[in-house]
Amino acid sequence: MKSFEALYAEYYNKVYCFLFRLCDDGDLAEDLTQETFLQAYTSFHRFRGECELFTWLASIGKHVYFKYLKKNKLDLDSANLELVVNTYCEGCIDPEEHMRRKDVEEAVREIIDGIPKKYRDVILLRIYAELSFSQIALVLKISENSAKVIYFRAKKMLMEVLTHEFEM
After folding, report:
1. For the whole prediction, is pTM greater than 0.90?
2. Of 51, 60, 84, 166, which has the fewest beta carbons less than 10 angstroms from its beta carbon?
3. Which pLDDT tens digit goes with each residue over 100-151?
4. Rounded Cα distance, 80 and 143, in Å
5. How many domains are there within the chain?
C-alpha cells in the first residue's frame, strides 16, 4: 500500500497534465486521473515492469479517456487539438488570423477523425503524453520502428492536408 501511495505522489501531476492536455478540462482531467489511479491500483499486480511506470499509467489514462468519450458519445473532435493548431498558427493575433486559426482547428479535427485508430493512438501518446517511441511501442505492443513510421506518416498526412487547404 505504501509503495502505491509513493507512486501516486510521484506520478499524479504528470498523469493529470497528460489527461488535461487530452481533454482541456481541469475537472474532467481530475476525475480521469483519479479513475486512472484506481484502475492502476486494482491491476498493479499485473504490472510486469516491461516499461516505465509513467508509460503504463499513461496507457491506462488513455484507455480511461477513450472509455469516457465512448460513454458520453463523444469522439476525438472533443479532444484538445490546440497543440497542433498552435504549432501551425504561431503568432496569430489579429481577427483575420483568429478566423484562420479556427479554420485550421476545424480541418485538424476532420483529419483526426479520418485517421485510423493506430495513427491516433501513436499521435496521442507521442504529443500529449510525450512518450518516446520505445515507450509507445511497449504500450501499443508494436515495434519501435513501427511506432516511428506510424507517427511520421500521420504527421505527414496532417501537414499535407493543412498545407493544401491553407497555403495560397
Report:
1. no
2. 166
3. 777 777 777 677 767 888 888 888 788 777 788 988 888 888 999 999 999 9
4. 27
5. 2
